Structure formats: structure tokens, C-alpha cells
């Protein structure tokens, strides 16, 4: 299932090359946007005169490479660049859908939290609720949470690893306000220590929200609030686990439910 780039001139000449990537798309930037009259459902055409000079230099025909020129003029290139897929678009491989899981998290200490952010993005989470509880680590107010750009940069590191483009939404709240914002049709699970036990699941499920608390465990009043909001215990075994391991194991189990 290969893709091909065809350089078509106004005189009808064609020179076929293969792009370096296998995604079936050619990113040219705003100046090289495809023309609105792209012909066919799986073919795109770009006017070469609108492309940036660095792109025109890359597309210069091989016979012109031996000629040293300061820049590549429009006349040295075919009039249009045509990108055409050799297979129907419905046969192209698409990434698997992300888990339908959101996370309610009491974050660990700052250095661990910063390392955890890219990993949370790799998991494909939709929303991440950062929950502030009494006695928790002093993460709230750190520079990452004060700057959306820095927070987004950490999340993008994880998306680059897994090839995803959906950036998780990160919200900061206390436990009570977070519980009020959750969707009514969501399956609500909270990670806890203990032997495994089957979950009584409702007949229809929407998204799943997983709550991961402090490593020392939820306090009694916090656990009561979670159970009152409909959270069920998701047992991760009898061993004490770090916050990171609770998140990874909990998301995997919640996605398999």
C-alpha cells in the first residue's frame, strides 16, 4: 500500500518520486496549501509557485541538481505537485481508538509528576482531573500548572512517542467540585489495595473515570465522598504500589472492563 508523488507539468510531463514517510500525506505549511479544486477523493494538487523556497529546492528535478543556482525559480519546477494514493482511503491503516477512560488523580511530588505527564498522554486519556486533597504533595502552584504552554509541551512528548494527536484536557480542582463535574453515565472506579473481586457492572456504560488517590490511601471522608458519588473499588492487588503503577495498572484494567 504505497503512496506516490507525481510532479505534473503543464506540458504533460510526469516525474514520479516516493515520499520519505508512509502516512499518505505531504505537509507543506500554510503557503503551500492545496488548491481548492483538488481532483478526485484521493488526489491533491499544489501550485508550486505558492510553495516556500525550501520546499521547491527539495522538489527540484535531478537533472537540475548539477547546476548551481542561488535559488530555485518557479520555471525550473513543474507547475503543479500532485499527491495521489495508490490504494483506497478506506483501506489505509488507522490507529486504534484511544481508551474511553478519564483520570482523577492526586498527583505525586513535582519531579515525579513532571515525568508522569508524558506517560499520561501516551495512555490516550481524555481528561485528567488533578485533585487537591489535604496533606497531598505541594504540586499545585508549580510552574507547569501555571503555564499552559509548558504543560502542553510535556504532554506533547508523550503524543510524539505514540503517534497520537489528541492532547488530554487537564483540569485542576478539589475533590468535591470534581465529583460534581463528572458525567452521569460514566463508570466510576477507584484504585485500592486488596484481593481481586468481580465488579457489578451496569448494563449500559459510557466513559470510565478512574480515581487514583495518594499512595497512603484516601482518608475516610474522601472515600465516603467517592462511594457516595458512585465509585466502586478496583482492586490492584495486596502490594503497596506507587502512584505511577496504580495509574498504569488501573487504566489497563478500566479499559478492559
UniProtKB/TrEMBL annotation:
Q: Where is the Ribosomal RNA small subunit methyltransferase E methyltransferase domain?
A: 99-244
Q: Does the keyword Ligase apply?
A: no
Q: What reaction(s) does this enzyme catalyze?
A: uridine(1498) in 16S rRNA + S-adenosyl-L-methionine = N(3)-methyluridine(1498) in 16S rRNA + S-adenosyl-L-homocysteine + H(+)
- Which SUPFAM superfamilies does this entry report, sorted A to Z? alpha/beta knot (SSF75217)
Record-listed E.C. numbers: 2.1.1.193
**Predominant subcellular localization, coarse grouping:** cytoplasm
Q: Which domain of life is it from?
A: Eukaryota
Q: What biological-process GO terms show up in the record?
A: rRNA base methylation
Recorded GO molecular functions are: rRNA (uridine-N3-)-methyltransferase activity
Which Pfam families does the UniProt entry name for this protein? Methyltrans_RNA
* Region called Disordered, residue ranges: 1-41
* Gene3D superfamilies named in the record: 3.40.1280.10
The UniProt entry, under InterPro entries, shows:
Alpha/beta_knot_MTases, RsmE, RsmE_MTase_dom, tRNA_m1G_MTases_N
The record's Gene Ontology cellular component field reads: cytoplasm
Keywords, in A-Z order:
Cytoplasm, Methyltransferase, rRNA processing, S-adenosyl-L-methionine, Transferase
Q: Where in the cell is it found?
A: Cytoplasm
Q: Which family does it belong to?
A: Belongs to the RNA methyltransferase RsmE family.
Known role: Specifically methylates the N3 position of the uracil ring of uridine 1498 (m3U1498) in 16S rRNA. Acts on the fully assembled 30S ribosomal subunit.
* Name under which the protein is recorded: 16S rRNA (uracil(1498)-N(3))-methyltransferase
Q: Which organism is it from?
A: Symbiodinium natans
Amino acid at each position: 500500500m504505497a503512496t506516490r508523488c507525481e510532479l505534473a507539468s503543464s506540458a504533460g510531463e510526469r516525474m514520479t518520486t516516493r515520499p520519505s514517510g508512509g502516512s499518505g500525506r505531504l505537509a507543506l505549511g500554510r503557503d503551500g496549501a492545496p488548491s481548492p479544486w483538488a481532483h478526485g477523493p484521493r488526489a491533491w494538487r499544489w501550485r508550486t509557485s505558492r510553495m516556500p523556497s525550501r520546499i521547491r529546492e527539495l522538489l527540484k528535478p535531478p537533472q537540475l541538481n548539477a547546476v548551481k543556482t542561488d535559488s530555485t525559480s518557479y520555471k525550473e519546477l513543474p507547475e503543479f505537485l500532485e499527491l495521489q494514493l495508490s490504494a483506497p482511503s478506506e483501506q489505509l491503516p488507522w490507529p486504534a481508538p484511544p481508551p474511553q477512560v478519564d483520570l482523577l488523580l492526586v498527583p505525586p511530588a513535582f519531579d515525579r509528576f513532571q515525568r508522569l505527564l508524558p506517560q499520561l498522554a501516551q495512555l490516550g486519556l481524555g481528561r485528567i482531573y488533578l485533585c487537591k486533597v489535604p496533606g497531598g504533595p505541594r504540586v499545585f502552584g508549580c510552574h507547569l500548572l501555571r503555564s499552559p504552554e509548558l504543560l502542553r509541551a510535556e504532554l506533547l512528548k508523550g503524543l510524539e512517542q505514540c503517534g497520537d494527536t489528541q492532547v488530554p484536557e487537564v483540569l485542576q480542582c478539589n475533590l468535591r467540585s470534581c465529583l460534581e463535574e463528572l458525567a452521569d453515565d460514566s463508570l466510576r472506579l477507584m484504585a485500592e489495595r486488596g484481593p481481586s473481586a468481580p465488579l457489578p457492572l451496569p448494563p449500559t456504560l459510557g466513559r470510565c473515570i478512574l480515581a487514583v488517590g495518594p499512595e497512603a490511601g484516601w482518608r475516610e471522608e474522601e472515600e465516603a465522598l467517592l462511594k457516595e458519588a458512585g465509585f466502586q473499588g478496583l482492586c490492584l492487588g495486596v502490594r503497596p504500589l506507587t502512584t505511577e503503577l496504580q495509574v498504569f495498572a488501573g487504566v489497563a484494567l478500566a479499559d478492559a472492563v
